[in-house]
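Record 1 of the preview.
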Amino acid sequence: QIDVSHYISEDQADQEREVIFRDYPIIVATSCQLPEPGDFITSYATGVPALVVRNRDGAARAFINVCRHRGSRVESASSGSKKRAFTCSYHGWTYDTDGNLIHIPQDYGFDGLDKSCFGLRELPVVEKHGFIWACHAPGESFEIDGFLAGVEKDLDGFKLNQWHHFETREIPCKMNWKLVMDTFFEGYHIGKLHRQSISHIFHEMAVTFDAYGPNHRLTIARQNIEELRNMPDEEWDVLPYTALVYCLFPNTILVYQADHIEIFRVFPGDNPGESLAVLSFLTPEKPETQKLVAYWQKNLDLLVNTIQGEDFPAGETIQAGLSSGAQEHFIWGRFEMALAHYHRTLKDLLGRTPLITRKAAE
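->
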């Protein structure tokens, strides 16, 4: 069980923003989202304005999206491609894709200023296993495999860098960010909550749980898994007969479906009762015809309609009742092991010293 204050406490929300969303490695993009040099994304979801770009050598770089002159936002677009430099719209200070300050308009007004000391503030970043991770506070570099604890073997098997980024959508939610995460941690609700949509596709109670350090995997059987009974064991391929749901701690859900991948990244809002879910939809290859575009658009719309019409409204009603006094704790059954594992890991993390040492401002 878990105390409901876990979802409504202002003090815990502040601690989560500081410890989890600044000091812990967070997935900021998939590799296929930035396929070419100059491709970039920006985000303010963690509370720190971030700019992630692939430099001209093809390496992923991450910076605080703040001009070193007077603190204005350097790049205002949410994403873009083939960018060679970023120019602040306030006074025109310009930075290359490695964050170096390369131009100051009317630079005679800044005699003696060493441009090499005024590059964008760099954030630690690692690209591996088809994802780009960053910490949202300047600090020391990190090795991501230590955090993945073995789940990277599954990620490598998916070859995520070879997939196509079809679309990313932001979904505001009126519930705590952890309630959004909880949505994906059991199949117990499928037969009831989704009886009009996807319950005919899955076995709601045929679910296995595997932990990988702070991460975990749920394997949810599809109804067609019965077909494997008629096949020799050596011919089994479970992927077409299951949905694989990964929690990549602390805030990312990867759902491997039969023919596409869904990635949800979840962030806290301005108060404990608000959050933002960022959904990225990946397809095996770039659709080259309007028919294929329409096919994937229909699949994406179905996914969004299901979570916005069924999953998230249920979570929002939970959030609305948390302060009523009706209960002090949530109770989890034996088929909700992923919930217990996730929240135990989260509680443990909040009680630790920082995992990555921050770097003082120079």
